[in-house]
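User: I'm curious what two different proteins look like when written out as structure tokens. Can you demonstrate?

Assistant: Sure. I'll show them one after the other, since each token string lines up with its own sequence. Here's the first protein:
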Amino acid sequence: MKLADLAAAVPGAVIEEGGDVEISGLAYDSRHLGPGDLFVAVRGLSVDGHSFVAEAAGRAAAVAVERLSGIPAGTPTLRLPSTRRGLAELAAAFYGRPSRHLRLAGVTGTDGKTTTTHLAAHLLDACGLPCGAMSTVSFMAAGQTSSNDTGQTTIEAPELQAWLRRLVDQGLAHAVVEVTSHALVQERVGACDFDVAAFTYIGRDHLDYHPTWEDYVAAKGTLIDLTSSSASKGLPKTVVLNRDDASYDALAQHPIERRWSYSLGDSADIRAADLLPASGGWRFQLATPFGEAPVQLPLLARFNVYNALCAAGICLALGADLSGVAEGFGSFRGVPGRLQRVDLGQPFAVYVDFAHSAGSLASALAELRPLTENRLIAVFGTTARSDHDRPGMGRAAALGSDFFVITTDDPVEEDPAEIAREVAAGVEARSPGKDYEIILDRRTAIRHAIELARPGDVVLLAGKGHERTMVTAKGREPWDEVGEAEAAIREVLNT
């Protein structure tokens, strides 16, 4: 595309020079520039792309900036009101606005959004509506799945738009995207034309990035505004809200064409009526604006019923048939690292879960307690992220488990021993050595917990879930939580 054609797609864009230059790609990192690229100088939290404009100008076809200083004479230049917002619009235009050719749902929340994204994609496929999906765990399209190794739940706008373009080129007409608050604030999805905005539970996460919980909820709420203002595709623009969540009242204030709520109670549009535990999951009547249908949900934990209701709302809003949605639940096999059972025939249960905050750890332990005949044993750590309530993690383990091991989880450049001490500060009325231990080497901690397990016990390995690396001061090191659990179980079974 010519630079001038790209500029025409961005409100407020001004061609300063070189509108006829041909653009063959977009780049926001000067280290990854190609000769035909448009370099977009994005301002980040710690690095401003404008600092690299002079260097980029020598290798890029053109530059896009907010301010004109430091640009070598003769450089084809596009001036934008906001390069962050502009990057999303430029990427969408470059790839032909692919989201306008898809029925697109965005799923956001603190906990549950990955499972809900996978569930919704599975249900759409089961209903004969082939679907692409992007989550923290993986990219899925046309029956193919690849791991999301980017380190981002919601990837940057150019990569996101390129991925949506591939879905369209593969002939898909539906997509579900997991959307973080960071992605919303940083406008990575700003040029996506959503049809459905869906919300899971919103806790008190990322409060180092968002000043208050109210700000966090407001950031999430921009997904509704994006959906409401998106290009029409013949579907009512819909928000699917958790009626039982503290965020409901604030989010319900955002205007949109259709608003559906879901709940385990009676006062919602989508409900789980006659909810009963079943073998390995739940049984209920899925009550919706289109009628009722029986559901067998093969997922543990009550919070997964919420996720199922949210996923059902997404699919119905995208045009799926109620009977197909209800039947599709039965063939869902879960998400890697989300209460994933590791079973090699041992006489105790082992689960791997991504629970990495105080609230999610408490919730996972509470859900496993009814399944525990004897002791509930937990292994967990907390990351270098400053917004995590480290004493709260210790408190959750002390209240929810019979024995626990505090270990390491992505310490980055922090001292793992100091992180563990901060976690242990929240432990009350529990004795070290008797009720818990600190073992910093995670592999050793897992092995120790599994050696302690006896028939009827349940072991929860929390925090790493699906992740394939451990981030330490040495960098990213390979890690496989399920593999480590299996190795420990084999060792125990063979001794």
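Here's a second, unrelated protein for contrast:
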Amino acid sequence: MIETAALALLCLGWFLFFAGTVGILRMPDVYTRLHTAGKLDTLGSFALLLGLAVLQSRSLTLPDILVSLKIMLVLVFVSVANPTATHALVDAGLRSGLEPWMRSPAAPGPAPREELP
């Protein structure tokens, strides 16, 4: 049962990484690419590391539990560092004058935002 749960978490993590890669390739500008990378890479690494911790702690010996705790510490670090780094990259892009992508007025769909005076 534990191996099945760990395998499901590992597969979910790999799927989220794959979806993030596809999102990076398909998105039109750097901001939407960073949004995709920030969300899906954080969730993918969360699922992968949680699956590895579950798989490692299937035997209740002290060394295996300590390895699982170390994996959980890495998980906490990644959960804090990855969104922070993504925010810093977006902020640096905005400060350097990199304009976000806007839909052209001739394209179908919702109207673009109006510029403020």
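A detail about the second structure: The chain is about 75% helix and 0% strand.
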